[in-house]
Every structure is written in structure tokens, then in C-alpha cells.
Amino acid sequence: MLRIFHNPSYDFIKWWRVAAISTIAFILLGLGSFVVTGGVNYSIEFTGGTLMQLEFKQPPNVADLRSTLDAAGIRGAEIQQFGSNREFTVRARDERQVSEQAAGAEGVARRIQDALNRKYAGAFTVVRTEAVGPKVGGELRRGAVIAMLLSSLVTLVYLAIRFEWRFGVAAVLSSAHDVLVTLAFIKLLHLEVSLTVVAAILTLLGYSLNDTIIIFDRVRENLKKQRKEPLRDVLNRSINETLPRSVLTHATTLAATLALLVFAGEVIRPFAWVMTFGIFVATFSSIYIASPILLWIEEKYPRKVEGRPAASPPREPREGRARAQAQPPTRPTPAAR
Amino acid sequence: MSNLKYRVLLIVVLVAASVWALFPRTVTERVRKPDGSFAYEPVRRVPLKRGLDLQGGMHLALEVDESRGAVANKVEALDRALKVVRTRIDEFGVSEPVVQKVGDDRIIVELPGVDDPERATQLVQKSAFLQFQITDETQALDKALPRLDAIAKEKGAAGAAAPAAQKPGAPAGITALLTPGADSTKAAGDTAARADSTPVGSTTGGPVSRLITQGQIPGQYYVAAADVPELQRYLALPEMQAALPPGKSVRWGSDTVSLGGRSFRPLYVLDTRPIITGEYLTDAKPNTSPIDGNVVEFQLNNEGGRRFKRETGIHVRDYMAIVLDDRVMSAPVIQSAIGSRGQITLGGGDLQEAQDLALVLRAGALPVPLKVAEVRNIGASLGKDSIDKGMRAMVIAVVFVIVIMVGYYRLSGVLAVAALMLYILYTMAVLAGFDAVLTLPGLAGLVLSVGIAVDANVLIFERIREELDRGKTVRTSIEEGFKHALSAIVDTSLTTILTAAVLYQYGTGPVRGFAVTLIAGIAASMFTAIFVTRTFYLLWLSRARGNQTLSI
Q1: Same domain membership, residue A34 and residue A53
Q2: Is the pLDDT of residue B71 over 80?
């Protein structure tokens, strides 16, 4: 039997302070980058505007491309290489161009194509066009935010019913953390935030939540068995017990996201980046964020069970208990601020 | 034992059903023939719908255009517009078009495999509002000109100041137009071309009059192509609109005419009341006539025919302007009363233009103007590229997962991999069965889910290992492992399904495809992990009775 992390007994909770500081530092780094370099790189879908993906027969001179567009009155267009040096994307989305879209979204795209036809007739093809009016962009932005909030709410309610409210709150707060960290990551990598990336963030939330639920499920089970054990130890034990599963699942998922990142092409790459990062976030947050939060809530609003006199000794002592005793002596729970 | 038999039977039946659901079959599709016509033909393919981002095509979102006046009953108008757009698209002929209303104010048109997006947009957007109006014979415009001039002078100063401020270097448009030199050359050119017509403006010299020259037929005027924007700006002024002769409307011609080496745009003054509109039209077809070039011949219904005959009978020797979407296509003279047939001359248009015009006339006019709120167009080659790359990522992901699972769990890993294969098969079958659309994000989701789907198996295996550690027998450990892992699997699956449902509700196109793929994947994953893997174990146990070790 090949085993990794067999019967581990790491004190994960001990590190909550370090974890909290490093994650806050990372979020602040993202926020700093946000302040210094300006806003998030939203896709055309959200900002409104025009995107054209062009494939040239010969690698074109980018400066030529730009001056051609400038001459046609498409000023301030972002020209980016997309994959090979024969493929480029052109994004026109300054305020004036976006408001032009209100009258008919296809107008700017037609002008770009006309201008390019004059200069590069026959030497390029338009492989993709997206033109979005300002109204549609606004609606999509709103929809994305609603989707995030609603999925958090739905999860909270579900967990409150299936577990208890403490678990729900801890899981949702940890999800909020995941969103912040991921946004910081997106900002630092300057990834384009498109609907697909929003979908990736939501998937990541689901994945991270899964991870948290797996641990909490174990906590719930262990609490039933061992009512006297302090929550801190129960948490540590539960994390340790689920550790092999975590490592295995993260490995297989990482295999899938890496395959996407490397082989699935340029269009899906931002999605793959977010998901790859998400695996680490999920692992981190379910261990170092969700669990300490649960502990903190427990201290603020203790469960009734603990208030009960410890009359019921642990039922049916098992062979497995030997492991619990192997753990380091419990330290007093960290003072919650 | 019989329990096990039923389990195996269920799995086999599901596999058979999945294979059947995914087996390439013959479907009738609208196919574009090389000659441009369309026909329903049987096509053999895997019955899995691909989204526009994977097969290439065009996505259009249309909204009611209120820039030219508010629309009273928008919801009802949009419903009628939807019908018209649907009829047009059906006739346009793409393999599987989607035309649907989204919300209260938007029409979505999806055209897979369209290779001429420009033409498709035109076809959908064209109002196709056909009117027949008699040209004005009372010189109404000439009478109103002094007043129009006065308004233009008053407003013109303000109007000219604005562009002058924007472009400091260039002379203001109106000043250039008013310089005597420019005007005299124009007038000279006109007289050289047509001795019988005198520039209307030459006597009064007002800003509007100067731009307008009497045309060849009553109610027709010529405007030099360069002056058209200028005059359009004047005509757009509300004061100007109010000062136009009552009961008359001013319409531009569709083509420019060339006279004496200069190009002019005809301007028509027409009786506002149309003698008939396109609503009586029953048929329209393109044709090529030796004299008029490409034309569209139309046919009116009985009522329309009667009305047309009566009206044209009254107006014999008058000129009748055929007005399409407020543009005068042509203005032939009425020789005698016309019955239920007629034709529209396209001037320089090619045969395809005639075909498209005939199509939109047949489908009927749009009750409200529509504007494009969103357009996405993906080339077929890009779509194919995405599929190829997606499939490659899929294969590689599967190989990785197999290596990890078999390497770590040995025989149990093999069982998990077999379950994973069934998982992929079931997911695809569910997608095909529900007629769901596979999009690029959906494909990515599918690849991702290959990694995540084994999670349920990992949970179960780890649990079984724990039970074995506690010294339980193989059979009990397996039982207990499944039992204890169940709650975690159900909870994680349900929360993911809830998230996916929210995504589906608030997402559009590709993202919806992603949500559907996710839901199908989770359902399949729950089934394969809990039921299929368990059955495999039961099979193994029944074979290896009394086996005290489990390869896990």
C-alpha cells in the first residue's frame, strides 16, 4: 500500500496567525497594484466596446497596425499579440467608442475592418469579433455580481441546514477570502476578467467550499464521537485525517488544470490560470482560514454541547484512539483578538 | 447476489443508452449548397450540439432603437419584430438558427456557420417598410424655401460655430459652401448638364436654397454629394421640420446620380400619405431585366391590388416614388392604372441584393427599428482549433489522472479509472440527451471535472483504508468506507450544483454551457463514485471470497 501523509499529526491551527498575515499581505499587494496601475482589466463583455481577433498571413508591424487604426479614427485601441506573432487582438473601448456602440454595436468593428482592408487587403482574416453596447456590458456586470452574492447566500443557507450556522458562516467567510485573494491574483497577473473568468471564480468557490466541507464533515463526525475534546484539537485531527484525500484530489485536479493551461489554447488560458491558482487557494483557505474562523466563532458563541456537564464519556472507545493520544499536548486556544 | 445482478444490469443498460445517445445518427439539417440555395438534407453526425464558439458563427443581440422617436408599446412591438426576424432568418438559411426573446427588450439571433456576418446583420436589421408615394407637383418646397432659408441663417451661425470650434484649422463647412466661387462653379456645372433646369437657389441665395437644384421630375431635387451632410444637418433641426410644407415629406434617393462629372444625390418631396404600403404584399422575387438591371418583382393581394389600381388610376401621368425604409428607390411615371404586380428597380445593386430585398419584403416589415446591442462572430477555423486543443487537453488530463490513481491505489485505482471512463461517457450522454450546448468554457469545465470527479473515489478509498487500519475485514471496511464518505460526497455535490444553478441563471451563452456541463458532470460523478465503484467492489468481493487483502 503506497501511502502519503499516513497518520500525520501536524498542528495546523498553530499557524493561523502566519497564514492570516500572509494572505492579508497578498490581498494588500493586489489592492496596491489596483491603486497604482489603475483598475481591473475587464473584457469587452463588461466594459462595452469592440474586440477583433485578427490572423495575418505574415507577421505585421505593430506600429503600422496602430497607425492604420489611428488614421481611421480608432484612437487608443489596445493592440495585443494573441498566441503566435501572426495573431493579434484589437480592443477599442475608450469612452467615445463605447458610447458609439449604443447606436449599433457593429459600427466600430466595421470601421476597423474597412481601415485594415485598405492597408492589408487579403493578407489577414478576422477570426473573431465581439462588439458589445454599453447597456449590455452594464447588465452583465450586474449579473456577475448578483451571481457571486447569490451563490454565497445559497451555500450559507444549505450549510446552515446541513451542519449548523457556525459552519455555514465560517465556510462563506472563507469563500469571501478566496474571492479577494483570487482577485488580487488576477490583478497581479493582469489577467482579463471575462465572463469565463467569473465562471472560473465561481467554480473555484465551489471547489474551495468542497474542500472546506470535507474537513467540516469530519469535524462534525468527530464532534459526535468526542464531545469533550476541545474544538481546536478536533479541527487539527480532522484536517490531519483528511490530509491524504486533500493531497490526492488536489493532485488530480492540478493535472487537469495544468493540461488546460498548457494545451487548451489562448482563449481558455485565463480560466486555466484562475483554476490552477484556485487549487492552492482552496487548500490554504479550508485549512488556515475556514478552520480558525470556526474556532473563533466557537469561542464567541459557544455551542450548547460544551456547556453541558461532561457526563457522557466517549462512547465505544476504538482502536484508532491511539492516534489521538499520539498528538502533541493541546495548547490553550489562541486568544481571539 | 441478485442485488448485484441488478446493479450490473443497471450499469450495462446505462452504458448502452449512453452509447446509443452518442452514436452518430442521421439528422435532417438545412444545408447550404454550393450554388447558394438551401435544402434539407440528411447529415450523419454525433448528436452533441456545439456552441457558436466551437463551431463558428454569429451571435446578435437586437434591441428596439428609440433614437428616432420613442416606441409606444415596446413589448408588443418586440414580439411582432421577433416574428418578422424569425421568418427572415428561416429563409436566410443557416443550419440551426436560434431566434428568441430574452427578457422584455431583446432579441437574440444565433447563426451557426455564417460566413458573411455583414450581410446577416443587414438582413436582420433592415426595416423593409415599403411605401408608394406620389411626388409633389405643387412646388411646395420652392414656396417654403424662403422660410427655410431664414431658419437656416438663424440657426446656421450657431450650427457652424460648433464644428469650427472643434476643428480650428479647417474652415467651417457652411462658410465654404457659401463662398461665391464654389457656388458659381456648381451652378455652371449644372447648367452645362441640363439646360432645362435652373438652380433654385440662384435667385434667393439662402443657405438652404443654394444647396438645392431642381431635378428632372416634379418633386425631385438634386443636391451635390459634398453638400449632403450639410443639408441633412439642416433638415434634422426641429424648427426646420416644422417649417416643411404640411402634408409633404422630404426623402433622400437611394443612389447618387452623376451629372456633368459631378455626383448628386436626389432629394424628393412626396405626399406624406402613401397610396399603398408593403402590408398588402404577398410575394416578392428577384429578377434581372435587360433594361432596369436587377429588380425585385412583387405581387399584392386582392385588396391591395384593388386599392393600388384605384389610386394609380387617379394619378396617371404622375410620378410614383417607391420608398423603402424612407429611401426613394425609384420614381417611375404612372402610365396607366397598375394592378397587383409591380417591380422595384435596384439601380446598381447586384443579384444578391435583389435576393435579400425580396426576402425581407416577403417576411414583412419590422414594426420597429432594431439596433444591434451586441455582436459576436467567431470564425469556423477558430472554433475547430478550440475543439482540437480542448480535446488534447482532455486526453492529457485523463492520462495524468490514470497515472496518479493507478499508481497510488493500484487495483482500486483501476476500478476508479473504469468508473471515470463511465463518468465521461455518462456526462456526454446527459449533455446529448438534454440537448445541451457544448461551449468552449463547457469543454474546459469537462476537462476540469475529470480531475475533480475522482475526488469522490479518493474520499471513499481513504475511508476504506482507515477502516482497514482499524483492523476490520475487507468486506466491512468497504461497507463502512462507502457509508461514511457518503455524507461528504452528497454535501459537496449539492453545494456545487447550487452554485452551477446560480451560474446558469445569471450567465449567458458560453457560461450557461459551462454551468450545464458542470451539473451534468456532478450528477454523473455522484452516480459513478457511489454506485458504479461500489458495484465493482461487490463484483470483486464475490469473485474473491475470503480474500483478506485489498489492493488499495
Answers
A1: no
A2: no
Parallel, antiparallel, or unpaired: how do β-strands B248-253 and B327-330 relate? parallel
Give how far A112 is from chain B: nearest CA, Å: 13
C-alpha cell at A228: 469533550
Q: Which of A80, A134, A138 is nearest to A108 (CA)?
A: A134
DSSP B333: B
Task: State the Cα–Cα distance between residues B396 and B391, nearest whole angstrom.
Answer: 9
Q: Are A255 and B508 an interchain contact pair (Cβ–Cβ within 8 Å)?
A: no
In this prediction, residue B373 carries a pLDDT of: 86
Structural domain span for residue A234: 13-38+137-306
Question: What does the pLDDT read at residue B120?
Answer: 83
Phi, psi (5° rounding) for residue B471?
85, 15
Give the Cα separation of B149 and B201 in Å (integer). 10
In a domain, A320, yes or no: no
Q: Answer whether B511 sits within 8 Å of A257, measured CB to CB.
A: no
Yes or no: domain B133-365 corresponds to CATH 3.30.1360.200 = yes
Statement to judge: residues A216 and A142 lie in one domain:
yes
Sequence-distant (≥ 6) Cβ neighbours of residue B403 within 8 angstroms: none
pLDDT in tens, B378-415: 888 888 888 999 999 999 999 999 999 999 999 999 99
Answer yes or no: pTM beyond 0.80.
no
Q: Any idea which of B237-241, B478-482, B532-536 has the lowest mean pLDDT?
A: B237-241
Q: What is the CATH number of the domain that holds A68?
A: 3.30.70.260
Higher pLDDT, B192 or A4: A4
Domain co-membership, A128 together with A168: no
CA proximity to A238, closest of A277, A295, A278, A282: A295
Domain-ending residue, one of A132, A167, A189 = A132
SS (H, E, C) B183-222: HHHHHHHHHHHCCCCCCCHHHHCCCCHHHEEECCCCCEEE
- Phi and psi of B137, rounded to 5°? -115, 5
Q: Which residues pair with A81 in a beta bridge?
A: A88
| Cβ contact B470–A320 (<8 Å) | yes
Residue B58, min C-alpha distance to chain A (Å): 9
CB contact under 8 A, A263 and B389: yes
Mutate to test the interface with B, among A87, A106, A146, A239 (most CBs of B within 10 A): A106
Q: Are A193 and A210 in contact (CB under 8 A)?
A: no
Mean pLDDT of A301-318: 50
Residue B262 has pLDDT above 90, yes or no: no
Q: Tell me: pLDDT of A331 over 70.
A: no
Does domain B2-22+379-543 fall into CATH 1.20.1640.10? Answer: yes
Domain covering B26-127+371-378 in this structure, CATH number = 3.30.70.3400
